[in-house]
Design brief:
Number of strands: 10
Number of helices: 2
Structural class: mainly beta
Strand content: 35-45%
Strand order of the largest sheet: 5-4-1-8-10
Length: 153
């Protein structure tokens, strides 16, 4: 990524912890197409998206844009799909989880847009209370969104 692009974009990673066994999960683009699909492993699945910054909203909130960002400007989110909605035709599940971006702090966004090898990561539970894949608006686990500094390669 060019330095000029880097200043206006950052990466987020959603880690799906303990996904439902033998259920496919995928990251949904705004146009409805999927990234993946990825067959779940017993431990976790990772989905990464680049988010661009537009001109700040009238409220002063960051304006989050990009091919994976959905929702109105004041309430952006990304979708993690599962089962049939993730392209697994033979699944009994047809679900989509909404991961809200509104709690991304301006400070973390600033860090992620100015430092190399930094991303903002959140973790969600891969299953719902009924034992199926996560769905609807999901809460982030632990401390919510966190800054992750990747090791130099």
């Amino acid at each position: 990524m060019a330095a000029s692009e880097r200043r206006h974009s950052f990466r987020v990673c959603v880690v799906v912890e303990s996904p439902v066994d033998r259920v496919t999960y995928a990251l949904q683009r705004r146009d409805g197409t999927l990234d993946g699909p990825i067959q779940a492993s017993p431990e976790q699945q990772r989905f990464e998206a680049t988010i661009r910054l537009g001109a700040p909203l009238a409220s002063g909130q960051p304006n989050l844009l990009g091919e994976y960002v959905s929702g109105p400007p004041s309430d952006r989110f990304i979708y993690i799909n599962s089962g049939r909605r993730a392209g697994q035709a033979n699944s009994c599940w047809d679900r989509r989880a909404k991961v809200k971006l509104s709690s991304l702090s301006a400070e973390w966004i600033q860090t992620a847009t100015t430092e190399q090898r930094v991303l903002i990561q959140g973790r969600i539970r891969g299953s719902a209370p009924d034992g199926g894949p996560c769905c609807a608006t999901v809460s982030l686990m632990g401390m919510g969104w966190v800054i992750v500094r990747e090791a130099a390669s």
